[in-house]
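Protocol step 4 of 5: obtain the predicted structure for the target chain.
Materials: sequence only (see below). No template structures provided, no constraints applied. The aim of this step is simply to have a reference model before the mutagenesis design in step 5. Sequence pasted as it appears in the construct record:
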Amino acid sequence: MKRPRSIDRKRSFSYNTEVLRGAADIVVRCAFISYPAQSEDPLYERMITMPDDSRYRMSREHLEELKEKLEYLQTVREKEVSEQIREARSFGDLSENSEYDEAKTEQGRLYSQIADLRDLIENAVIIEVTHTGSRGVVMGSRVTVREQSDTETETYEIVGSQEADPMAGRISDESPLGRSLMGHREGDVVSFEAPAGVLRYEIVRIEN
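Step 4 output (structure tokens):
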């Protein structure tokens, strides 16, 4: 039986290392375009310690979507789950009734969803998108940027934290990248701190 050549093991190790580095880079990039920025700016420190810390920034359209979802869960879905529980009870002994256990578990998940939605709706802060005549980046802008160390461009829409989805091209105005872009114009270069060092992005295009 042939022993594997050491060069094959080295190639395999090198390949796996590159894959892991690539995956780590993606995680870091996503983190710094989706999570709220941290800053030593005294004004920012005051902002994050205000009582409004528990409020959720979102557009009026997103708030309406949440209200519609809550209405559906409290009416249609809650009735469906109640019917499932009622039907499971009819099967007899509840101590050995897997259908009943599953239905009760689903009811618990439903009530948890309803509670979360109520919290979001009751503590919502509406972000009014007003970019008429604005040439800089504002809430609702679609911004095309290019990292200075790269040739590829990326386009993001600036939204509230509750609507952020980096994989779908929507980043929060509270994320490091989103926060650094706010107020800047085409041609400007913005920067922010990341674990790997300072990242710099050039604003290629702004659509308001």
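Step 4 remarks: The chain has five helices and seven strands. The helical segments are 6-34, 42-48, 60-89, 98-122, 176-181.
Proceed to step 5.
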